[in-house]
């Protein structure tokens, strides 16, 4: 991922130096497991642990000859280990035992960062939702004014989606944190299944119930899909902010820092650039989901068509979602909420949004629903089309007491506390 959208802690996980350190961690864990099972001596593990190291430049030199990065890594490690002990390294393993198990460790570390990001964002959204629990604003459907809600209620829906997204993410994470030490074709032909179990225990992973020569890629597709769903939730409210910041709505706006410029040509502009950026990045995550799905179908017990794809989409998706969660948290934390504009928008055209209350009140006059609907629609559209006043129009049909009851926001918001109680 380009530096613009990368945060250091996450991007470091996917650098070459770190990747090979995960490889070495797996190789050492296998040797330690063999020791604990009584197959290797403690001396073997201690010596290899002390001397095993690698150099990125040297691995690159060897790979130009071998055209195989794991072999290049192993040859470089063995150059630093006594010949007496080097035969114990990678004994009975195949490359994917190391690659896929190390991959799980990378994902584990990346996911901790993502979960921390989610926890912080969820807390930010929850606090803002409860702060604006009773901040009256318009609810909209089809982009048009519908009925009154509160801004806190709107945020509560975002909170609910984020909490579900985190649950889905952790379900996919649980499924992907598996290792394999099962040898070529996964049949344990040259290594005992107990070594796999012990190695995974040492590494804090589960053992795959079955692996062919790789861990099946449906797990990885579900993980990428869970990340893209987090991105989609972020996008859903980013679009909401973009709509509410429009000049003719002006109910919220992104924080505008000192010295910030909105347009090179029009000095009056304050554009929702962060939200637009987040909408765009969510598209990248979704497109990577398709690549992850394509990785599931491989030839027989293994091919490497998935490998090149994963070298791109896993760093990109984890780095991007880390960036997005932090940027979105900043947007929500610094959101400017214009309560007066929200109230004023509910009063447009003389409270046209209270049409349903008027309809229901007319039904108490022994009218048919069709007849009452026709009256209310006529008076509402007259107010809308002629910049008129719906409340004044309805005074021809309802008493002052009835008008007062119909044009009362509290009637619409009477159960807001009930909904918020679910999130305490």
Task: Outline the structure in words.
The chain has 424 residues and is mainly alpha-helical. The chain folds into 2 domains: 3-74 and 94-255 and 269-342, Up-down Bundle (Fumarase C, Chain A, domain 2); 349-410, Ribonucleotide Reductase Protein R1, domain 1 (Orthogonal Bundle), CATH 1.10.40. The chain has helices spanning 8-13, 16-36, 42-51, 56-66, 69-79, 95-131, 151-176, 193-203, 218-244, 273-294, 305-333, 339-346, 348-351, 355-363, 369-385, 390-394, 400-406, 409-412, 416-421; strands spanning 136-141, 144-150, 178-179, 206-207, 252-253, 336-337. The chain has a two-stranded antiparallel sheet with strand order 1-2. Strand 1 (136-141) and strand 2 (144-150) form a beta hairpin. Helix 2 (16-36) packs across helix 8 (193-203). The longest helix is centred in the first third of the chain and has 37 residues, at 95-131. It is elongated. It starts with 7 loop residues before the first helix and ends with a helix. The model has no long low-confidence stretch (mean pLDDT 95).
Shape, per Cα inertia axes: elongated
Specify the number of helices.
Answer: 19
Most strands sheet: 2 strands, antiparallel
Structural class based on helices, strands and sheet pairing: mainly alpha
CATH class of the largest domain: Mainly Alpha
The gist of it:
This protein is mainly alpha-helical. The chain folds into 2 domains: 3-74 and 94-255 and 269-342, Fumarase C, Chain A, domain 2, CATH 1.20.200; 349-410, Orthogonal Bundle (Ribonucleotide Reductase Protein R1, domain 1), CATH 1.10.40.
